[in-house]
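Students often ask why inverse folding is considered easier than folding. One informal answer: many sequences map to the same fold, so there is more than one right answer. In these notes we will look at a single instance of the problem. The structure comes first.
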């Protein structure tokens, strides 16, 4: 097999197992190798029965560690693209042909940061491969518009079966508005309703009820001062209205917690702390010194919260700040994480899962369902959250 990637940095990060003890595509080097093998299969340069190089040859060819190459092959086998025959090697498996006139490919513009979406990419790619659809993960954070324009040129001849979009990129989204008329199913993930084109499908976590559920849980336990830890939002006056509307997810978090407080007929019971973005990281690193120091002062204040709600990975910074403020968790400060990513598997705190596994199932169903049954499928799906009180584990 010829080189899948002409050059890859020798300083590629070391691959790690997830908290669930299984390999995933969270490491960029693993993701790149898996995606490029899948692309060569889709293009026909790798065919059914072709043998992959050995793990050592793959590692040497792409300047990767042996562990990275092994993780990539394990991922390819798990999603059903290759099969390993004991004593013989690893071979490309046969796959079913598409049931519609488009190519049998699904292009996934998915968030690559696992602390935000857990095993979503892993679960969705596995479901699609088992259904005979070839998934390709596409970058939308860096050079995404150029990459989409290049892909769009190939889609003019043969549109993909589906495109899944996470993260608002107006220039990209505008390019994709013509695809449904040509048989492509466009599915958005996490968009507010105002941003979903009438010809698109959507699958959305219920951010409002997730935060309402978390706040209600804290209030039921007797807390009367609820804190929210959020990412600082910066709205530029020159931004198009579509980009400003994207920030409404933030509003849903505040409104959800506020609804639970109103239901208890409480007043002045909500306080909000914003993590500031640092450098090129737009989400605000939760454990950097600036944000932890600011949270520490917040937790030392006279009107400090006794329960804090936020994305589960932000709770890492909250715990550090609580220690600095001299507070004990959970006696002095109850922490409730939102998300249900791999971090919640080891977190000794209540969490509200956004159920990314169910989201993956819903997206896969929209992609793989027969055309004649598609009209009977809900166009907009909101996945309800579920409370997991991990703090009660033995």
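Output (designed amino acids):
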């Amino acid at each position: 097999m010829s080189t899948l990637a002409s050059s890859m940095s020798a300083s590629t990060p070391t691959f790690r197992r997830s908290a669930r003890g299984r390999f995933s595509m969270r490491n960029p080097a693993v993701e790149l190798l898996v995606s490029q093998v899948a692309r060569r299969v889709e293009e026909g340069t790798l065919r059914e029965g072709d043998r992959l190089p050995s793990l050592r040859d793959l590692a040497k060819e792409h300047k990767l560690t042996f562990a990275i190459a092994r993780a990539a092959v394990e991922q390819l086998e798990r999603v059903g693209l290759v099969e390993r025959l004991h004593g013989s090697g690893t071979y490309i498996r046969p796959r079913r042909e598409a049931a519609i006139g488009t190519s049998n490919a699904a292009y996934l513009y998915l968030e690559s940061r696992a602390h935000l979406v857990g095993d979503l990419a892993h679960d969705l790619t596995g479901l699609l491969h088992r259904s005979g659809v070839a998934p390709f993960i596409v970058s939308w954070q860096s050079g995404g518009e150029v990459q989409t324009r290049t892909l769009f040129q190939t889609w003019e001849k043969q549109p993909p079966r589906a495109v899944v979009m996470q993260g608002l990129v107006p220039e990209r989204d505008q390019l994709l508005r013509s695809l449904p008329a040509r048989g492509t199913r466009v599915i958005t993930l996490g968009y507010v309703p105002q941003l979903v084109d009438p010809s698109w499908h959507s699958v959305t976590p219920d951010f409002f009820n997730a935060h309402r559920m978390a706040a209600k849980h804290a209030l039921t336990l007797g807390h009367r001062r609820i804190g929210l830890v959020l990412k600082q939002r910066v709205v530029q006056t020159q931004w198009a209205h579509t980009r400003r509307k994207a920030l409404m997810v933030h509003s849903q978090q505040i409104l959800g917690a506020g609804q639970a407080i109103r239901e208890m007929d409480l007043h002045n019971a909500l306080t909000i702390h914003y993590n500031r973005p640092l450098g090129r990281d737009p989400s605000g690193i939760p454990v950097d010194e600036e944000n932890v120091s600011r949270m520490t002062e917040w937790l030392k204040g006279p009107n400090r919260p006794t329960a804090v709600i936020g994305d589960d990975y932000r709770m890492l910074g909250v715990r550090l700040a609580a220690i600095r403020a001299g507070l004990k968790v959970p006696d002095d400060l109850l922490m409730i994480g939102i998300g249900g990513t791999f971090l919640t598997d080891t977190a000794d705190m209540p969490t509200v899962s956004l159920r990314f596994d169910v989201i993956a199932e819903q997206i896969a169903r929209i992609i793989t369902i027969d055309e004649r049954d598609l009209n009977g499928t809900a166009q907009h799906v909101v996945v309800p959250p579920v409370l997991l009180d991990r703090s009660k584990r033995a």
